[in-house]
Amino acid sequence: MPPYGSVFAGEAATIEYAVSALKLRDIIICGHSNCGAMAGLLDPASVEKMPAVRAYLEYAKLTRRIVEENYPHLTDRKKRLTLTIEENVLVQMENLKTHPSVAAALSQGDLTLHGWVYQFETGDVFTFNPDKNEFLTIKHNSPAATEADRARPSN
Question: Is residue 10 part of a domain?
């Protein structure tokens, strides 16, 4: 998701129309497991001969920096890719918030952003829970689960 002002193309027009004209109430930024784009972000040499992909990944360069600077200890490729996918969802949500129509709708309480990661292997959908600062399966992040968590005695 390009930040507002970086490019005036289809993305910005689509977002503006959806939020301002159609009065969209929810926007989901959804990543997915085994994402080839995020693998390319972690290994730029793998997309060296793909100029359009390289250019597109410029919108995720903050994701790579977050992963490199905050998680240097995470060396397992699969776990690192999963973390990168999750971090990228959060970065793209922040980029979306730079769009004036989105910022206005959020401040008025007319719009909610959701960060999801879909896991192809299991069909599970993980949603970002800002209160817990983590991605949880939707079944664990439902209102019923939240109520059950509140009712559970703390240790």
Answer: no
Within 10 A of 91 (CB to CB), how many other CB atoms are there? 22
DSSP-derived secondary structure letter, 109: T
Strand partners, 115: 29
pLDDT in tens, 100-120: 999 999 999 999 999 999 999
pLDDT for 13-54, tens place per residue? 899 999 999 999 999 999 999 999 999 999 999 999 999 998
* Domain around 45: 21-151
The beta-strand segments (E) located in the chain are: 26-32, 112-118, 125-129, 134-137
Give bridge partners of residue 112 from the DSSP assignment: 26
Q: Is residue 12 part of a domain?
A: no
